[in-house]
Amino acid sequence: MSYDRTVELTGSFEEAVKAVRQALADQGFGVLTEIDLSATLRARLDHVMEPYLILGACNPPLAREALAADPSVGLLLPCNVVVRADGERVVVQAIDPGTMVTLTGVEAMAPVAAEATRRLDAALASLTGQDTRPPQQDA
After folding, report:
1. Is 75 exposed, middle or buried (0-12, 13-18, 19+ CB in 10 A)?
2. 137 falls within a domain
3. Which three-class secondary structure state does DSSP give residue 78?
């Protein structure tokens, strides 16, 4: 099972971060946390790497529904969205909310995960117009 939704962008890292924030907001997500992983590794380990930002995105109504279905699902919240430089391109990846259902085994989570997936896919697709869904496996 693929656990991510991914798009690739051209342009600067800073432009991509701004566009991702707007795309998430357009789908009802706020950014609750922000981790500049490249700055952290540079400061703590003197390790230099390309820009790598982790955004903790939350859609409050969906978070409330998920917590009602399983209070322990907070371990999997917020939905992480990664913006990272990769050479001349910028990669944007979002966690597949379906992993909440897979990891918890709580079927009541399925409609919440489906709606979160729809919204995250719409946000990512608005950045490039490309489909972010993983290819279907033949049964």
Report:
1. exposed
2. no
3. coil
User: Considering its fold, how many domains does the chain have in total?
Assistant: 1
Q: Tens digits of per-residue pLDDT, 67-126?
A: 999 999 999 999 999 999 999 999 999 999 999 889 999 999 999 999 999 999 999 999
Tell me the CATH number at 72: 3.30.310.70
* pLDDT band at residue 1 under the 50/70/90 scheme: low
Report the distance separating Cα 29 and Cα 15, nearest Å. 19
Domain membership of residue 131 (yes or no) is no
pLDDT higher than 50, residue 63? yes
- Report yes or no on 138 lying in a domain: no
Give the helix/strand (H/E) hosting 31.
strand 30-36
Q: Is the whole model's pTM more than 0.85, yes or no? A: yes
Does the residue 96 lie in any domain? yes
pLDDT in tens, 26-55: 999 999 999 999 999 999 999 999 999 999
Q: What contacts 24, CB < 8 A, 6 or more positions away?
A: 30, 31, 55, 57, 81, 123
